[in-house]
């Protein structure tokens, strides 16, 4: 790992406490020094930084270089074959899968993280955890509500004195799975948004300024008075004094904060998640669920050309998706550990990886 990754990991260690053990895995053995290169989701960056740090400590023969460049960039590099794995907060569509050489075999998409997207704001003189409804949120991002003292916002927070200050919307500038999850939610709660903006990793934003990655959006919100934006929950929890977030009205009519418990409640409403049926936004049925949540996925080739690299990759991702491994780190920094059924999905997906001799790398009982 590079010095920057180690420095970031060290900061996360100090915040989050001790890490999880890295046990040996039956039937999967690393052989010799290996370097794995990955790229993609900034949603995953805090989890990957922490998990890969501990894995490297236990397996110093393995180096993982991860470029946090956004889901769109990671998917592009994966399609071009320049990385061992990609990471995206939205699985690849059929049109994207067609871009991967057929010799690579089936593209396998492994769930690796579960988290929520907080609606964060920077507004002096008001308390944390203001209330907001889906309708008001949509009107803000559609540039229909432009000032913080708008009556629609004030009516939801009657005991708050709002300043006469312009709202600055902050969104992602890069192709982003985080954006896909957010715009998917917006399309579900606003017909105007659905028809005028739509859902995607990149959209034509009606207003606002763009930041690179979740870290860029978080930084812009922190440094822009009057800002509002969407950002992965871990970034808010790591900056509690400078990033405040809204309590969002869920489909049951309850104002809910983005927390590990409320994201877990949302995921529980869709237990049979898969790479083709993955959305968990705006699900009804629970008064405790936070409606802007989603899974992130590792993208790997089903046919591997190097057995040593393949073994190291499967070993790493198998550990990452287990409670006894990387998912044990997830709860420390704002993610929700993958539910048992999703951990099982990750295992059965990884069991489809084959080495250059055509044999499976991992057998899952």
Write a structural description.
With 365 residues, this protein is α/β, with parallel strands linked by helices. The chain has 2 domains: 3-114 and 294-350, D-Maltodextrin-Binding Protein, domain 2 (3-Layer(aba) Sandwich); 116-293, Periplasmic binding protein-like II (D-Maltodextrin-Binding Protein, domain 2). It has 14 helices and 12 strands. It has helices at residues 3-16, 45-58, 71-80, 94-97, 134-141, 151-156, 177-189, 191-196, 213-223, 233-237, 260-267, 307-320, 327-330, 340-350, and strands at residues 34-40, 62-68, 85-88, 107-122, 131-132, 168-172, 209-211, 227-232, 244-245, 247-249, 255-256, 293-301. Strands 1, 2, 3, 4, 6, 7, 8, 9 and 12 form a 9-stranded mixed beta sheet that branches. Strands 5-10-11 form a 3-stranded mixed beta sheet. β1 (34-40), α2 and β2 form a beta-alpha-beta unit. The relative contact order is 0.18. Mean pLDDT is 91; it is low at 1-28.
Structural class: alpha/beta
Can you tell me the overall shape?
elongated
The topology string of helices and strands comes to HEHEHEHEEHHEHHEHEHEEEHEHHH
Roughly how many Å is the radius of gyration? Answer: 20 Å
Number of domains: 2
Q: What is the class of the largest domain in the CATH system? A: Alpha Beta
- Helical element count? 14
Strand content bin: 15-25%
Q: In total, how many beta strands?
A: 12
Give the CATH superfamily of the largest domain. Answer: Periplasmic binding protein-like II
Q: Termini, distance in Å?
A: 32 Å
Q: What's the pLDDT, averaged over the residues? A: 91
CATH topology of the largest domain: D-Maltodextrin-Binding Protein, domain 2
Which regions contain 5 or more consecutive residues with pLDDT less than 50?
1-28
What is the name of the CATH architecture of the largest domain?
3-Layer(aba) Sandwich
Amount of helix: 25-40%
For the biggest sheet, the summary is: 9 strands, mixed
